[in-house]
Specification:
With 126 residues, this protein is of the alpha+beta class. It has a single domain, classed as Aspartate Aminotransferase, domain 1 (Alpha-Beta Complex), CATH 3.90.1150.30. It is 37% helix and 22% strand. The chain has 4 helices and 6 strands, in the order αββββαββαα. The protein has a 6-stranded antiparallel sheet. Helix 1 runs parallel beside helix 3. It starts with a helix and ends with a helix. This is MmcQ/YjbR family DNA-binding protein. Keywords: DNA-binding. One of its GO terms (molecular function) is DNA binding.
């Protein structure tokens, strides 16, 4: 399965943004990329090898953002019970998928929902 170039560009921007947040680090549990703050994942970035459709999974606690994310083409509540806690999986290669700027806003919201207060405050101070 070929990775759509526009999806890969969005993914790269989202990954770079996520890893630029205070205390963020990339790990590869289950063979997929995730961004963590401390020991907690704030965005699942998946894989870029074409074995699965490109997408991101993040936690959106703001009702409007959550509803907006779920209205994106192909988006769905995250699997493994994470959807009950506000996690949404958003494919990047779908026609009409959100742009990198909006995805980065959602990554920041997910980060703020998970990061310790002192790191969120560090982000505010930037």
């Amino acid at each position: 399965m070929a990775v759509p170039r526009n999806a890969l560009r969005k993914w790269e921007k989202v990954r770079e943004f996520a890893l630029g947040l205070p205390g963020a680090a990339e790990e590869f549990p289950w063979g997929e990329s995730v961004a963590k703050v401390g020991r907690k994942v704030f965005v699942f970035l998946g894989v870029t090898d074409g074995s699965h459709p490109m997408g991101v999974t993040l936690k959106l606690t703001d009702e409007a953002a959550h509803a907006h994310a779920l209205s994106c083409p192909g988006a769905e509540r995250a699997a493994y019970g994470l959807g009950r806690s506000g996690w949404v999986s958003i494919p990047l290669g779908e026609q009409g998928a959100p742009g990198a700027e909006l995805l980065c806003e959602w990554v920041e919201e997910s980060y703020r929902a998970i990061a310790p207060r002192r790191l969120a405050a560090e982000l505010d101070a930037r």
